[in-house]
Amino acid sequence: MVEPRLLDAGGQRIAARKDLRVPMRDGVELAADAYHGTEEEPRPALVAMSAYGKELQAFALTMPPQRRPSPLWDGCIEAGDITRVVTEGYVHVIGDMRGTGDSGGVMIGNYNFGGVPQGQDLYDLIEWVAAQPWCDGNVGMIGISYFGSMQVLAAAERPPHLKAIFVSGGHFDFYETTYHGGIMWFMPRAAREGRGGDSGIAHTNVKSRMQEEYSPDELEKLVQRRLQDPDVAAWPNLVHVLKYPKNREFWFDIVMNHLDGPWYEERNPITLAQNTEIPVYLQIDQGRGWTVDGHIELFNVLKGPKKLDIGSYPPMQSRPWVEEHDTMFRWYEYWLKGVDNGIMAEPAVSVFVEGSREVVTAEQWPPKETEYTSLYLRPRHKLSFEPELMGAEYASPDGFYQAPLTVTDKVEVLSWSTEPFEEPTELIGTGAAHIFAEIDQDDTNFILRLWDAAPDSKRQLVTTGYLKGSHRELDDRTTEGNPYHPHTRAVPVEPGKIEEYVVRLYPFAATLRPGHRMVAELSNNEPLADAHNALLPPPDAFHLPVGRPVTHKIHRDATHQSRIVLPFTTRPATGDS
Region Disordered: what ranges (predicted)? Predict the structure, then answer.
């Protein structure tokens, strides 16, 4: 057995067992560190597993939490406050997934798709931890983002000693992690390669699943086909990745798989979670809507005791991560230590409402009854509760021409605004933008953002929606205000034809206060700089721009009623006439 060495963490004495070797069922050994109090007694354990490197997580012992824009903020230090975990009477186990850090084995493809299932490794590690003399047999898990996703994969395997999990900010639908509405998001590149405030994966032995499955000749043909997409061909980094995939294995696989299907679905945690019966606490902050969407979807399929906490905007927590610890320890005090502290008597769902800054609670999502109501795009950039009455011959379309970012740094944005709201007006749920558009190319992006605009011109993002034009097909899950796109094929747009594009607006909770307006902005690329995208430095916060020049005509006449469907919990009152 590895003997502990004593550490002094800000006056707190901690025993650290470094570089433990944990055997997997196939003979591979994973590396882990265990931190606990100096008394020799068994304790519950909280396990944190990722591909980011356990030594990086040890910064939590020496570096105070950093908030953006601190240059020391590192998005990968996500395993939690080691000293706090030990002080609360737990063992903090931090380890490296196979093929990364100090662990053995090979990681194949993104999240080990095509290799040994990560849930299988996590099962073996949790059961090993439970059998150690310093653990009392009660195991939970800890950590946000990648660490959170690993918790769901572990729980789906049902290791007997995993008693509960606490997930914050995980990514669950792996297609939606990288393609929003079919539009590629660049942030996963940062997590893999290490860019824009992220150290990235601690690669030691990783392989591309595409390169494992296809011969060099077959792969070259697939690469050439992918390069026929003008959006990909216009972006230098993507061309570089496709031409020189070595050492960029994960990002190569993601770029090559731009459609949803078996590649992403075979180990989709939301599908696997239907096998989970242990208690699960889900926490997510507003701001990045696709992660809110994933947490709600996961909450709805879980069968055991569960809670959903949707917090305030913005979403970027400190690194090392320390937020949510108070709630997490209440959760584990109940489930791992058997202390009845009242947490299970509290409502299952808690939602912070922007604007009013109230917390709404209920037993389900959404926490209140909602009425889907349409706001119509009208002439003179108005957004109205009354539909357009003029025919197409009189209500000329709005429009914009967007040149590729290879030749301009200007992103064109169309906007429509309501009259000021006269009373506080609350909205909670998902939404949809029905845009009747005509373009002169076979594809484009539709990016719609809703803002709460105050009388003093300050504004805050309410929600966003993304849709690649060729991904406009809807599936049978679609209901009013809650559209779903299968993303299993791309259907080119017929230039010059008016099409209805239904853009999913990610879940949100906001109150428009008196005097505030709702502003809708539509573009086909993201502005190169604004308050929302400044959460992360460009280009890692951005989505893949359109690589071709596109003229857009947005029709909003009596026949083509472009509208935004929103979930009102209170009857709206504005000066709208």
Answer: 472-491
The reported pLDDT for the residue numbered 270 is 86
**Confidence check: pLDDT of 540 > 80:** no
**Looking at residue 560, what is its pLDDT?**
97
For the chain, helix (H) and strand (E) counts, in that order, are: 15, 26
Q: To the nearest whole percent, how much of the chain has pLDDT over 90?
A: 79
Residues 382-413: tens digit of each pLDDT: 999 999 999 988 999 999 999 999 999 899 99
Nearest to 500 by CA among 519, 478, 472: 472
Contact 33, 20 (CB under 8 A): yes
Give dist(CA 308, CA 276) in Å, integer: 16
For residue 533, the model assigns a pLDDT of 60
Q: Buried (b) or exposed (e) across 298-330, using 16+ Cβ within 10 A?
A: bbebbeeebbbbbbebbbbbbbbbebbbebbbb
Residue 532 is predicted with a pLDDT of 61
Largest CA distance in the chain: 83
Task: Return all residues near 559 (Cβ < 8 A) that are at least 6 apart.
Answer: 391, 392
349: closest CA among 531, 507, 534?
Answer: 507
d(CA 243, CA 223): 8
Q: What does the DSSP assignment read for 532-545?
A: TGGGS-TTTT-BPP
317-363 per-position pLDDT tens digit: 899 999 999 999 999 999 999 999 999 999 999 999 999 999 999 99
Residue 493 Cα distances to 318, 437, 441, 459, 551, angstroms = 43, 11, 7, 34, 13
C-alpha distances (whole Å) from 419 to each of 204, 396, 426, 489 are: 57, 22, 16, 40
**Distance in angstroms (rounded) separating the CA atoms of residues 351 and 349:** 7
Q: How far apart are CA 90 and CA 187, in angstroms?
A: 33
Ordered by start, the domain boundaries in the chain are 5-204+255-346, 371-568
Two structure tokens written together for 422: 């006269």
Question: Quick one: 199 exposed, middle or buried, by C-beta within 10 A (0-12, 13-18, 19+)?
Answer: middle
Fold match flag (5-204+255-346 vs 371-568): no
Q: Architecture of domain 371-568 in CATH?
A: Sandwich (2.60)
pLDDT on residue 194: 85
* C-beta atoms surrounding 133 within 10 Å: 9
In CATH terms, the fold of domain 5-204+255-346 is Rossmann fold (3.40.50)
